[in-house]
Structure formats: C-alpha cells, structure tokens
Amino acid sequence: MLPGNWKNFLRNDDNKDELFQFLGAESVSKDTGDRGIISTIHESVVSSNVNQNLDGLQPCSHEEADTMILLHVKYAMNSGYKDVMIRTVDTDVVVLVVAHFQNLENLEKLWIAFGTGRNSNTCMR
Predict the structure, then answer these.
(1) Where does 3-59 show beta strands of DSSP type E?
(2) 9, 3 in Cβ contact below 8 A?
(3) Among candidates 22, 74, 75, which has minimal Cα distance to 53?
(4) DSSP letters along 59-89, please?
C-alpha cells in the first residue's frame, strides 16, 4: 500500500530506512542480462550478477551515499565493466564524478543521468 502523503511518510527515519532496503533489494532482483546493478542494504553490498565477487566492497561503512556511488563505479571498472551509468538527483554526486573523472580511465562510457521527469538530463563521456 502506498502512502497518501509522501512528505510525511519520508519524514520518519524508519520509513526511509525500510524504503531504501526495499529499493536496494528490488533493484538487484531483476534479470539484467550482461549488465550489473550494484546496491547497498545497510553495510551489505548486493548485485544483480550473482557471480560477482563483492568482497572488495563489503562491509560498506560509508556514511555518505555520494562517495559510496564513486566507490561502486571504481569497483565496477576494476571488475571489467566498461560502461557505467550513474542516476542521481544530487548535484554533489555530479561534482564528485567530475572531480574524480581522471581516476576512471578504464571506462569506455560513463553516463550521468541527473534530475527527474522533464527536468532530467543525461551527460556522457
């Protein structure tokens, strides 16, 4: 059942925690073919690719999601992925990716999908 008032629902930390756990688990539960999705659920790291070794990412104790995203991108790159997409609504993530861009030299394609709905943009290297 969906909440009637999302703003009130998201003001409760327990609701946000439960929602993030649900989204993390659901995002990796789908068959993604040759693509991989990496997500976190508290300190655990999960992947849509069941054969992917996640030892280098666990336990994930990053407090800030911004830096955790970069850690996941770097790990995906070091695991052989050549194309990565980051989807965010946070300008801090875009700034961090641009600042650390030179450290992602083994990626062939890097997309940043920024914003929501009509206000979304996608940038690619």
Answers:
(1) 38-41, 44-47
(2) yes
(3) 75
(4) S---S-HHHHHHHHHHHHHHTT--EEEEEES
Q: What distance separates the 2 farthest-apart alpha carbons in the chain? A: 45
Contact 76, 86 (CB under 8 A): no
- Residue 46 contacts residue 39 (beta carbons within 8 Å): yes
pLDDT tens-digit profile of 53-97? 887 777 777 667 788 888 888 888 888 889 988 888 888 888 888
Cβ(123)–Cβ(98) under 8 Å?
Answer: no
Rounded to two decimals, the pTM is 0.62
Which structure tokens are listed for 125?
């290297």
